[in-house]
Amino acid sequence: MINKESIIRIDNKINNIIDNKKNIHEILKQSMKYSINAGGKRLRPIILLEVFKALSDKSIDSVLNYACAIEMIHTYSLIHDDLPAMDNDELRRNKPTNHIVYGEDIAILAGDGLLNCAMEILIDEIIDEKTKKASQIISKACGVSGMISGQVYDVVSIKDEKELDLLHQLKTGELIKCALLSGAYLAGATKEKIDLLYEYGNRIGIAFQISDDILDVEGNEGKLGKHIHSDEKNDRITYISFYGLKKSKDILKDIIGKAIIIAKKLNIRFLEQLALYILERKS
Predict the structure, then answer these.
(1) From the CB of residue 152, how many other CB atoms can be counted at a distance below 10 Å?
(2) Which of 93, 121, 158, 232 could form a disulfide with 39 if both were Cys (CB 3.0 to 4.6 A apart)?
(3) Alpha carbon 278 to chain centroid distance?
(4) Is the Cβ–Cβ distance between 239 and 221 less than 8 Å?
(5) In degrees, to the nearest 5, what angle opens at C-alpha 78 toward C-alphas 72 and 81?
(6) What sign results for the dihedral spanned by CA atoms 170, 173, 178, 184?
(7) Per-residue pLDDT averaged across 151-163, rounded?
(8) What was the pLDDT predicted at 154?
(9) What does the pLDDT average to over 4-17?
(10) pLDDT value at position 132?
(11) Helix or strand run (H / E) with residue 244
(12) In 49-177, which ranges are E strands?
């Protein structure tokens, strides 16, 4: 499902963007590139590229910068999630987390640097209404009404099922959904397809976080590249702690089934494969 050639193109482009920044402190550059180059499936940027490819006859090179911006935002969020004040994790993608290698101060600034680089990319790409809309969608998804509030829900007490779903939707779902929608807008998709992608994104984002919760309980640390039971260690409310493991798996299957129906309506095979991957993922 994951196109290795696309991963290489994304990685090369991001490294070139960072390397070409003027007056960047060498330690900051090293810290940013450390997390960017630590591995990863590049799922979110590839979602954007695959949706664009399915809905447009133009080359994905025309939207590669958007894909890179999303991956830089995602990597920034992981650096900050791993910090002692957040999840306090020492391992990410089978490597020491950024703050373990560079210290908490540099890790925070590296995360800030990646986020700001992404915003610079999005601003530079605005040339018409399509590019403006795509840039707005991505920037809002990672902002205070999106991923950041999701991270806040993750560190404060969750009171009920509604807040639990909101946590999942914001923290994980928004960045996945914005990859779907920005790819569609850049391709000039119809309103009908954009509405279906919105519906698909709402489901698949929550499903991805539920699968994360499940893997944190019964996953293999070697395959995951990070320690399991971190949610329990940090006393975090998850689908598992709220519903139990069996019911969480049943909820995941139900959501994935509905997402596949939408993917079939869109006639985008990649989105069917993505849904099945999330259901069956081991890492």
Answers:
(1) 13
(2) 93
(3) 13
(4) no
(5) 140
(6) negative
(7) 84
(8) 84
(9) 94
(10) 97
(11) none
(12) 91-92, 95-96
